TrEMBL record:
InterPro entries associated with the record: GH (IPR017853), GH_1_N_CS (IPR033132), Glyco_hydro_1 (IPR001360), Glyco_hydro_1_AS (IPR018120), Glyco_hydro_1_beta-glucosidase (IPR017736)
Name assigned to this protein: Beta-glucosidase
Annotated keywords: Carbohydrate metabolism, Cellulose degradation, Glycosidase, Hydrolase, Polysaccharide degradation
Similarity comment: Belongs to the glycosyl hydrolase 1 family.
PANTHER family in the cross-refs: GLYCOSYL HYDROLASE, LP05116P
A Gene Ontology BP annotation from the UniProt entry: cellulose catabolic process
E.C. no: 3.2.1.21
């Protein structure tokens, strides 16, 4: 392997609702995740993000830890409801001040901010007006983004509009496993469309404002492979790819939804979103980069009883699993990178998340020797190197995640962090993977093959 290109970004990622806590502090408005997680039965052990890692009150300490980790870049998200508690109107100065401290603290430590504008915590007031099912939300999103572009002009030069719109649309509106917990497939299709419109409007505002820097979007992309060689499972895998990958990649890079899936949904009698040609142009404006979150390959089996998608997934297919029950499939990362490069040609790709969950606690010496996580990160980074060797323009890699955090509907059960957080004292303890990743980043990846 030749190694990683000069200037390759080494980072870690977090998200506001998963680490900040301070749910009622500094004038923050209620979000859909506050509402959802407080309904018994929605989140494992009925956990919620009221306190999470309390990063809202541990900012300096966390910034110092990032410095110690030696990352070049830090990807975090802004909680829309700290800036506009009800989604729009007057900006809330205290909320803005928190992110000023965060951004300035990063810059002082020579760490580049990578700012995600939306990582799932919609202001509840907007949900009350229909949330992502209402086209108006896309306009409110544009206004919120423009406010941040102006405010951080010259200080933040890397933006992602949305994180994983698929999760917001489908687990959020079809299966109801995630906030806002709606169960209606047509609503999910509508939400997906409005999310994409919001993305398009934000890109347009960024270009028209002439802001320095780059902007893109982050998608969760997993290769979908048939569980068996049967024709049914092969077709199910293609459908799964259309449902989760192409439903976003095609409009973003080709300006229209995939025809096979559109037809399939119509055949199921679903009511489809209203889509104009203008929408297609808006959504497919060029992005400076595509962010890819990768965790595993999804193995897919036809199952006619699941309406309307007619498949099941979540199988190990003989692979070892992480605590989250995700199969460990490093070559899937290389495969998705090569495929996206070949089919969609994004100018640049960042791996904006990749990581593994295990259940860990300090040993008798107070250490956390998380060899399994190191193995996971090592084998996946190796595959990133291979993809670069095959000509894929990967410009950076961000570990999910920095701190053990609130993992959505699985609560605090899944620990992905390079840093352990004691839930009672909030004390942070770097794991062994923390020092390992520091060496990898410091050597621009050479540490991977210089054992
Ligand atoms: C991704 C999310 C992120 C985190 C990881 C495990 O889908 O973007 O917030 O929860 O999964």
């Amino acid at each position: 392997m030749e190694g990683f290109p000069k200037g390759f970004r080494w980072g870690v990622t977090t998200a506001s609702y998963q680490i900040e806590g301070g749910a009622k502090d500094g004038g923050r408005g209620e979000t859909v995740w506050d509402r959802f997680s407080h309904i018994p039965g929605n989140v494992l052990h009925d956990d919620n993000g009221d306190i999470a890692c309390d990063s809202y009150h541990h900012l300096e300490e966390d910034l110092d830890l990032l410095k110690e980790l030696g990352v070049t870049s830090y990807r975090f998200s802004v909680a829309w409801s700290r800036i506009f508690p009800k989604g729009y109107g007057e900006a809330n100065e205290e909320g803005v001040a928190y992110y000023d401290r965060l951004v300035d603290g990063l810059l002082e430590r020579k760490i580049e901010p990578f700012l995600t504008l939306y990582h799932w915590d919609l202001p509840q007031a907007l949900q009350d007006e229909g949330g992502w099912m209402n086209r108006k939300t896309a306009e409110h999103f544009e206004m919120y983004c423009s406010y941040l572009f102006r405010h951080f002009k010259g200080r933040v030069t890397h933006y992602m509009t949305l994180n994983e719109p698929w999760v917001v649309a489908f687990p959020g509106h079809y299966t109801g496993e995630m906030a806002p917990g709606i169960r209606d497939f047509s609503a999910a299709l509508q939400a997906a469309h409005v999310l994409l419109l919001g993305h398009g409007l934000a890109i347009k505002a960024f270009r028209e404002g002439g802001y320095p820097g780059e902007i893109g979007i982050t998608l969760n992309l997993c290769p979908k492979e048939p569980l068996t060689d049967s024709r049914e499972d092969c077709e199910a895998a293609i459908r799964h790819d259309g449902y989760a990958n192409r439903w976003f990649l095609d409009p973003l890079f080709r300006g229209h939804y995939p025809e096979d899936m559109w037809r399939f949904y119509e055949e199921q009698g679903l009511s489809m979103p209203e889509v104009t040609e203008e929408d297609g142009r808006l959504v497919s404006q060029p992005v400076d980069f595509l962010g890819i979150n990768y965790y595993n390959i999804d193995f897919t089996k036809e199952d006619k009883s699941v309406w309307p998608i007619q498949f099941k997934t979540g199988f190990s297919a003989g692979n070892a699993m992480t605590h989250y029950q995700m199969p460990i499939t490093p070559d899937g990362l290389r495969k998705i990178l090569v495929r996206v490069h070949k089919d969609y040609h994004p100018a640049k790709i960042y791996i904006t998340e990749n990581g593994a969950s295990y259940q860990e606690h300090p040993d008798r010496n107070g250490e956390i020797l998380d060899e399994a996580r190191i193995d996971y990160l090592h084998t996946h980074l190796w595959k990133v190197g291979e993809a670069i060797g095959e000509g894929v323009p990967v410009a950076g890699y961000f570990v999910w995640t920095f701190l053990d955090d609130f993992e959505w509907n699985t609560g605090f059960e899944n620990q992905f962090g390079l840093v352990y957080v004691d839930r009672k004292t909030m004390e942070r303890t770097p794991k062994k993977s923390f020092s390992w990743y520091r060496e990898v980043a410091a050597s621009n990846g050479k540490r991977l093959w210089e054992k």
